[in-house]
Amino acid sequence: MPVASERDVIRSELRWGFITAGAVGVIFIAILSAALGLQINPPSNVEFADPKTLHLSGEFTEANLGTQVQGDTIAVRMIASQFAFLPRCVVEPRGRPVTLRLVSPDVIHGILVTGTNVNTMVVPGYVSQVHTTFTRTGDLLMPCHEFCGMGHSQMWASVRVVEPDAFKPDAQGRVACAQP
Ligand code: CUA
User: Fold this and answer.
1) Residue 163 and which of 20, 102, 137, 138 are 20 to 30 A apart at CA?
2) Ligand 1-lining residues (CB < 6 angstroms)
3) What is the Cα–Cα distance from 21 to 28, expressed in whole angstroms?
4) d(CA 133, CA 130)
């Protein structure tokens, strides 16, 4: 077997070095373009929320749940618990940035909103936050997508996306689904 010369070894190492750097570069560009161009990001928000006291005080008491316009931002607060979302329906305007904030008082749940980029876990102890802009109107299904117990398949909510001029907050900036 011929012995590789020092030169051949260096050449081979350099070649593999370039191939590796190229592959890393391609992956890096793919991650950057997904994040900046397509708004595909891992959930990066780390905020704590004590599951034992969620309902007693602070942001996630019953009176604060649902959709609320706060200046330029539209916040939606929901509780995901075995086996329902509270509230079961939220109203959002089409074409405006919305921030969804969810917490769980019991076990791990997960949400997605059909046909949108909203998809996150809801882990007890943390606030799950997702920014999105809904681009089409209608009732979008928001199922729990993490097995959370016997009632998991019964656990869903709906996101009612309406035209901006049909989105009418009250004096407190609240908007709720009409009661059936
Ligand atoms: Cu909650 Cu599955």
Assistant:
1) 102
2) 80, 109, 144, 146-148, 152, 155
3) 10
4) 10
Query: Checking DSSP bridges between strand 89-93 and strand 156-162, what pairing results, if any?
Result: parallel
Q: Single out the residue of 142, 168, 169, 176 nearest to residue 66, CA to CA.
A: 176
**Residue length of the chain:** 180
Instruction: Encode pLDDT of 131-165 as tens digits.
Output: 999 999 999 999 999 999 999 999 999 999 999 99
Enclosing H/E stretch for 8: helix 6-36
- State whether residue 145 is helix, strand or coil: coil
Instruction: Judge whether 90 and 76 are in contact, CB under 8 Å.
Output: yes
- Amino acid identity of residue 178, one-letter, is A
The alpha carbon of residue 21 and the mean position of all alpha carbons in its chain are separated, in whole angstroms, by: 32
Q: Which residues contact 28 (CB under 8 A, 6 or more apart)?
A: none
For residue 33, how many C-alpha atoms fall within 13 Å in the half-sphere facing its CB? 6
Atom of ligand 1 nearest to the CA of 151: 2
